[in-house]
Amino acid sequence: SGAFVETQNVLTPGERFPLRIDLDRNTPVSIEEAEVVWTGDRYGIFWTKVDSVFGSRQEVYFFTADRFGTRLTPDLQLISELGGSSLDIQVAWNGNGYGLVYGTYFRRIDAAGNTLLGPVSLGLGRYPKVTWDGSGYGVTWIESTQGWSWPAKLVRVNQNGAIVMGPVAYTTMGNHDIEWNGSEYGILTSYRSDYSHSQMVLNTFSVTGAHTSQTQIAYYGMAWNGDLLFAGNKFAAVWQDTSDEYLTIPTLAGVEQ
Fold this sequence. Notes:
A four-stranded antiparallel sheet has the order 3-4-5-6, with no helix packed on it. Strands 7-8-9-10 form a four-stranded antiparallel sheet, with no helix packed on it. A four-stranded antiparallel sheet has the order 11-12-13-14, with no helix packed on it. It is built from no helices and 21 strands. By secondary structure, it is mainly beta.
């Protein structure tokens, strides 16, 4: 057993390194998910383990590493739940600590992994996503995965874990993602156009929840499972189209963000 977390070196594009997470080889475990966040001088790495010996106990661990892949801290267990919902963990860095969303919960920890707040139940659904907006967190999730149009919600959460905006409803099909561009939330979604076509769409929302723009950025065979990044002056999106993957850098209404 054991697993590898491989990240892109932020400071030297193209340089890659593996970080190995060593587990007890006598314990039947499964690494379900790993999240890597760059904090400015190190990586914060979160990984989820499922241990079937203890009734499908789900555990989330955290450690840090420098840009060369050298561990700076040992594994720190953050979450341990029997039959819990930690597998969909997502993380955002706010300049001093991390905001985590997983299952129905929101939690804040400092740079060392010490809990500052939570867990606070936000009533989230599946596949939560989170981004830091400068003073709070934009959080999205999918409520149902039935049919071609999945209902999803957007809320804004303050540092105390209280919902201060939303929920705002939207729809998607497949994965979705959220990023902050300095003034608005960008949410990348996919829409099923007909039986054999879907499109990637970039929506923007203000911090008050107002829908400010919608831009179609792909119309291929089956475009879905998108990820979004804000690259300083514009959004960059990557998504899967059937068995291929595409990268685009869209601009909204012809104006770089």
